[in-house]
Amino acid sequence: MLIDCHTHAFADKIADRAVEQLINYYSIPTSHGGQLADLLQAANQADLDALILLVAATKPEQLKPANDYILDLAGKTPAEIAAAVKLPKVPKIIPFGTFHPDSPDWITEISRLRAAGIKGIKLHPEFQGIDLADPALNPFWEEVAGEFIIMIHVGDPQVSPANMSTPTKVAAIIKNFPQIQIIAAHLGGYQFWEEVVEVLAGTDVYLDTSSALSYIDPELCKAIFKKHDLEKILFGSDYPLRSPLEELQLLDSLAWLTASERELIYGANCKRLLKI
Questions:
Q1: Longest Cα pair distance anywhere in the chain, in angstroms?
Q2: Residue 123 belongs to what H/E stretch?
Q3: Which DSSP state fits 267?
Q4: How many CB atoms lie within 10 A of CB 66?
Q5: d(Cα 101, Cα 97) in Å, to the nearest integer?
Q6: Taking the complete model, does pTM exceed 0.90, yes or no?
């Protein structure tokens, strides 16, 4: 099974603006569109069986609309989605909800996600103004522990001097809330990979490969893979910044991975985590 655990698509009316903001924020050019149809076309090109679709509420007032978008997708069959985007087939979509600590209704939103059977929640500390070390987040960690998978963007020193998300901060969450299942995106911390080797690799956390393989030193990449449990490494593309096909080709180029190890990373690990 081939599963991309890290993709983004936006409501049609805001998709172009959202992609432009991503390009400007990261200084990473992309020609990929941000609408759901664009994502699913790219998914079909890579022959994906399934994908995780992520959203993030960057302001408290965006929390309910962002989750409305996710819940609407969760309520549709693959056939209905395929018809809506005018494609003959689409992969299985596993939508994750989002959270914002400054929303007075965040508990209600967690309840809505829970009732709909949503499997995970996405946090982007830099975009959302969330410091992972803030004790004010403890009620959230307690609420989701043992139930939701938490996908956390980690990294960005060149654009976020405050370092709201670091491997060390993720490691502290795991220590303090051991029941939480966390996916630390971008191989545990974009541009923090030496710190990943020191404090996060080898711990009870999932790492995804999104927006990492193009930028990490090859030997540092190998060190993370060799130190971490390969059953806790997941393939991710970070569409629309990167396409699933592009990232699969990069993963294929890691000659030191065996065929059986590749199968785990391509989808078997994520399938087990998602229980699908």
A1: 49
A2: strand 120-123
A3: I
A4: 22
A5: 14
A6: yes
CA distance 17 to 34: 9
Asked whether 210 and 247 are in contact (CB, 8 A), the reply is yes
Q: Are 81 and 53 in contact (CB under 8 A)?
A: no
* Fold for the domain defined by 3-274: TIM Barrel (3.20.20)
Q: What is the pLDDT along the chain (276 residues), one digit of tens a residue?
A: 999 999 999 888 888 888 888 777 777 788 888 899 999 999 999 999 999 999 989 899 999 999 999 999 999 999 999 999 999 999 999 999 999 999 999 999 999 999 999 999 999 998 898 999 999 999 999 999 999 999 999 998 666 567 899 999 999 999 999 999 999 999 999 999 999 999 999 999 999 999 999 999 999 999 999 999 999 999 999 999 999 999 999 999 999 999 999 999 999 999 999 999
Sheet holding 3-8, edge to edge: 3-8, 50-54, 92-95
Angstrom distance (rounded) from CA 162 to CA 258: 39
Q: Is the CA virtual torsion 196, 4, 246, 249 positive or negative? A: positive
Please confirm whether the linkage preceding 240 is cis (ω < 30° from 0): yes
Structure tokens at 152: 């956390």
